Amino acid sequence: MIQTGEKLKVFISSKTGDKQDCTKYNLARKAIKEILEATGLFQIYLFEETGTSSTSAVNHYIRNLRYADVCIFLIDNEDGVPEGVQNEVDEVLKNKIPSLYYFCDQNSREKTSLQKSLLHANAPKSKIIHSFEDFIERGAVDLINDILFTYKAYSSGDTIHPSNELLVDESDDENKIVKDEKISIPNIFLIGNKNISKEKCREYFINMFFESEKNQEEVSSDTDIDYYCSKFLQIMFEGVSYYTFEVSEYLKVLKTILPDNYFKIVKLRWKSIGEYYSNNLSESIETLKIAYKESVLNKLEEWFIQDILIDLRNQINLYYESRNEYTDQNYGQLELNKMGSIVFYPIIDRHEKNLLEQLEKDRQNIDIKGYSSKIFLGDRSLYTNSIADIFVEAMIFGSMTHLIHLYSNIQNLSYEWFVRNDEWSMFKLNFKNAIMSLDKKKVHRTAIKFANHVEKLTQEEAREIYDYTENQIISHKKLTAQLLAISEIGYYLNDSDFSIIWGGIKKQLDSWKNSETGIVNQESYIFNAFRRIAERVDQNYLIEFCLSILKSESVRYHNSAIKFLVNSVNYSDANSTIIAELNKYVIDFLEENANSTEKYYVKLLCCQLGKILDEEEIQKLNSKIQEKWPEFYKMEYLVETNRDDTIDALFLENQLKTIEFRNENQGKNGTYSRYVDSPFYSIINVLSIEGTSISSKQIDRIFTATSNTILDPKQTVDDKIQAYKLLYTLCRIDKDIIKRSTQIVEKLSNVEENIDAFESMMSHVQKQMLLFAHYLLLDLLQKDIWILILNELSTYDDEGSQIEACKLINSYLKHGGETETSRSLLGLFFQFSLIWSNSESLDLRWNSIHLLLKLLNIKEYKDAISNKFIRIINEDNSYVKSRLVHGLDKIAKVDIKTAKYILERSLSDSNYVIRKLALSKKYILND
C-alpha cells in the first residue's frame, strides 16, 4: 500500500458512549475508519480511541475538530442530535470546515431540527440513508468522490481560478515581495555588510495569523537580533511583562550592527521605551528630547530625526490627555513643522507600500471574478513577512510609534482576509486589534457588521479577546480598551471570568468616579460599557454609581448619568433602599432644579418610579410633582402610572390639540420644526393598552386631525409616516370609523401618487416611503391595490427603505390585521419578510422577525417560518434571536415542537441575555 507523508484529517461525529444504544454508532464509526485509513490518504479521529490527555475531554476533541480537514456527521432521526454533536456542528459551521451529513430515517422519517436548518442553498452536503450499513458503504465513497470533484474543478480553468495575485510578479524586481529577503538596512548603517535573519519573527506572525500548530523544526537558538525581537513580540501580543526583556543584552547586539553615532541615539530611544512601559511619560518625553537634540547635533538622516519627533509629539499628547489638558505648543510638532519636508522611511514605508499594493490587487481580483469561480489562496506568508519586516526595522531603530502602529497593520491585513475568505481565526485577530485602536465607533460597527460571528464566540474565545487588551501599555488607555472589550464580549464570558474581570474594572471605575482628576474622555466609554452589559451587572451598583455622579460637582457627567438611569436600568432587580435613595434625589431635584435642562429625562424617570415605589415613597413623589410640575402630573405622569378612563381621555385630548396646533403652524412663513415627542405614537400607545375606553366622538376627531396631517403638504415626511401608522390603528380598533368619516376618507382616497411633504435633512426616511404607507391605508379603505404594493416594494433595494417598509407592514398588521388582510397581500408580505430575514442588515432581520411572528399562525406559512426560526436560533445574532425568545409563547401556540427546540437551544446559548430570557420561558418545556 502506498503511504503518503501528508494525509487529510477526518473527524467523525456521532452519538457515542458505552451504553447499549450507542453500539450501532461505535461499530459504524470504527468500520468507516478502517475503510478510509486503508486508502492511505486519511488520518481519522475518533474520540473513544484517543489516549489520556492533560486537557479536558471537551477541549481535546474540539481542538482536534478545529484542525480537521473534513468532518462526517452520522445522525439517527429517532435519537435526535445529542448536545455534544450539536456543539461539534456549531464548531464546524463557525470554522467553515467542509462537512458531510448523514441522516438515518430507518426508525423515524421525521426530520430533525438540524436537518431542517440545512435546507438552504449554501448549506453543507447532507444525505438521507436508510440504515447504518448505508453509511458504512456510502461514507468513504462520498468523501473520495468529493475530493476528486474538488481537484477536477481546480484543474479546470473555466470554473475555478487560483488567486495568482497572492504570488510574486517576477517581472517587478523593484516592488515585489520576496519570501526569503533579508532585512536591508540603508547603506549608512551597514557594518561589514551584515545581513540580519528574521526567521523567528516571521514564524511568529505566521503562527499568529494562521493559528497553526507550532512548527516542530529546530530554529536557530543564537541570541541575535531575531532572537531578541521575537522575545519582544511576546510582550506586545501575549501580555508578558516588559521587565522580562533583556534590554542591555539586546543593545549589545544592536551595537554590533549600528554605527556609534546612531547606536547612541537608539540606546536613548530604548531608555524612553522602558519609561513608556513603566507609565513614566514625563521621563520618557525628556529622554526623547535629549535623543532629538543629539541626533540634530550629529547631523543624522532627516527621516531618523523626524521619527524621533513623531514619538515625542505622540507622547506629549498622551501626557496632556492624562492630565485633562490640551496644548497647542507641542514641542515635537513644533520641531516637525520647522523641518518642512514630509517624513519618509526608506525601508518601513517600502514594506507598507508593498503590502497595501498587494492587498489592493487581491481586492480587485475578487471583485471581478465570475460568480462560478473560486479563489485558492497562494503563499500568504508573503504578507505576514512584510509585517515581520516592519516590526524588526522598528525594533532596530527604537521607533515606539511604529511598534504601536503594528496593531493597525495586523488589523488591516486580518480584516481583508476575513471579509474575503470568512476565516474564523482572521475574524478574531481583526476584532482583537480593532479594540486596540480604541476607536469606539469602529469597534461597535465591527461587532454589528459581523454580529453573526460575535455570536459564535465561545466563552474561552471571549476571554481571549478580553485578555488581549493587556497589551495596551498606558494605564488609562488599557482601561479604555478593557471597557471596549467588555462592551462587546461581556455577555459571552462565563460567570467566573465575568465576575473576576468586572471586579477589576469596577475598582478602576470607582477610582475614576471619586477622583477630581479622572480622565474626562473616558466618560463615554464607561457609560457605553454600562449600556452594553447592563443586564449582567448588579442594578444596585449601576444606580449608586449614577447617583454618586449626580450628587457630585462633575456637572459634565450629569447628562450621561440621568440618561442611563432612564433608559438602561432594570428597577425590578434593584432593592428598595437604593430605589428610595433615587426617589430622594428626584424630589431634591424638583425642589432645586425644576427648570433645569435635565428635566425632560427627570420626567421620564418620575414615570418609571411612579410604577415601582411603595406607598410611602409614592406619596412623597406625587406631592412634589404636583407642586412643581402640575401640568405634567395631570397628563403624562398619571397616564403612565394610574390607569383611568377620565385621565386617558384628558391625555388623548391634549395630544389631539398638539396635532392640530402643529398642523396649523408647521411650515408657516417657511419655518419648520423637528419635534422630540410624537403625539401620534403617544395616542397609539394608549390605544394599544388593553381595556382603554374612548368615545367615538374623540376617535373621529383624532382621525380627522391625523388625516389632515397627511393631506397637508407642509408637514414633514416623519410626521406623515407616524400619522399613517395612527390611522392604521384607528381603522383596526374601530371598524365603523370609515363609514362615519366619508368626507375625509374620500379626500384620502383621492390623494395623488406624488404625495407632497417637507423632507428634513436630519431625517433618514425617504419621501418615497409615503407612497407605500398610503397604499397600505388604501387597502384598509377597501381599495384594490395589491399590484401597486408589489410594484412599490420591488423598488426598495436599500437597507433604510426596506426597514421602514417592514415597520409600516408591522404597524398595518397590528390589532389582528393578519386575520383581516387578503391572502394575496399576506402572501406578498410573507415573501418579502423571508427575503429580508436573510439580509446582512441586523436591524432589517430583527424587524422581519416581528413580521414572521405575525404571519406564523397562517397555516400555509407555518412550516416555512418554523424552519426559518430554527435556522435563526442556530446561526443568527443574539439581537435577532432575542426577538424569537420573546415570541416563544406565540410560537408554542402554533408549533410546540419548534418552540421547545428554540427554548432548549436558547438555554445553552453562548450569550448571557439569551440564556436569561430563556429561563423566564422554561415553563414551555412542560407543555
Report on this structure.
By secondary structure, the chain is mainly alpha-helical. Helix content is 63%, strand content 4%. The strands form 2 sheets. The chain has a 5-stranded parallel beta sheet with strand order 2-1-3-4-5, with helices on both faces. Strands 6-7 form a two-stranded parallel ribbon. Strand 1, helix 1 and strand 2 form a beta-alpha-beta unit. Helix 11 runs antiparallel to helix 12, helix 28 packs across helix 29 and helix 29 packs parallel to helix 31. The longest helix has 24 residues. The radius of gyration is 33 Å and the shape is globular. About 5% of the residues have low confidence.
Structure in a nutshell:
This protein is mainly alpha-helical and 927 residues long. The strands form 2 sheets. A 5-stranded parallel beta sheet has the order 2-1-3-4-5, sandwiched between helices.
- Shape estimate: globular
Strand content: under 5%
Radius of gyration: 33 Å
Secondary structure: number of strands: 7
The portion of residues assigned to helices is: 55-70%
Counting DSSP H or I runs of 4 or more residues, the number of helices is: 45
Q: Give the neighbour order of strands across the main sheet.
A: 2-1-3-4-5
How far apart lie the N and C ends? 58 Å
Low-confidence stretches: 156-193, 215-219
Task: Find the structural class using helix and strand composition.
Answer: mainly alpha
Largest sheet: 5 strands, parallel
For the residues shown, what is the average pLDDT? 85
